[in-house]
# Entry
Amino acid sequence: MTWVNLIQTLASGAREQNKRVVHGLHVFGNLKGCDADLLRDEAELRRVACEAARIGNMTIVSVVSHKFGNEGGVSVVVIVAESHISVHTWPEHAYATVDVYTCGAKSNPVLAFIHIARRLRAREVEVFFSDRSLYREELSTA
# Structure
């Protein structure tokens, strides 16, 4: 099983999807050994994050970014109708953190995360996920 398949299997969650009232999946992680030049390139990071949104079947609402000095890192946040994607970089350490959170059943934050990790040429990927859904049995009957 590849790490891509493993992430998708884990992210599907142990609970039944058809019992979700609100679909919420948060995929986040750390990318180590990335291409330092890419981590400094604000325009390219914006492109990568927007590509990830499209690959993950998300609707882009707005994009905000900030570069920290000439050689410093970059923060990019893509607001999507389904929630957000964020990328924060430390080129001096070849390191980036990535968050992809979606609350839509039709979006795929796993594919978006994988795209960013690949495009930043991460040599090591730590990935985590959190099921942030609301399930029928959790609804109050009061």
